[in-house]
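Exercise 3.2. Students should predict the tertiary structure of the chain below and write it as structure tokens, then compare their answer with the key that follows.

Predict this chain's 3D structure.
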Amino acid sequence: MQPHNHYQYAGFWRRLFAFMLDSLLLSVLTTVVLAALYGMNTALKLEDSIDWQNIDWTLFAINQGLPAVWTIAFWYGLQATPGKLLVDAQIVDADSYRKAGFGQLVLRYLCYLVSAIPLGLGFFWIAINPRKQGWHDKLANTVVILQDESLKPAEAYS
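Answer key:
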């Protein structure tokens, strides 16, 4: 286990910028898929509420499932989404500082809801936590570190 003081954690503003970029990319991707399947009018229509008795499950799966699969696939494959890659950040296991496991990343994604529900307090927690962990990071035992090679200890290359 590497001591955590060899790594620099990605802070609140860097992570917020990455999240906003990823949200924009996902919005465009989802709109393109919906437009291809349903036409542009449906793709651009915002639903005020979901009618669970007459729900279009394909539409629901695209709106909810596509972002989940996209995000978790990037996290698992590259340890970062495109936004995090742009800001030189990666998600790792909080204890070993190695690649986080698939189950850990699924839990991290699901725990976004825990971070978001109380007025986003779990995300703002990143700004005050010493290891820059949001509640979703704490619950999934992950940290977001900077990828800059100059910040890694020499033994990481052996």
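Discussion points: Residues 8-45+57-149 form one domain. Residues 154-158 have pLDDT under 50 and may be disordered.
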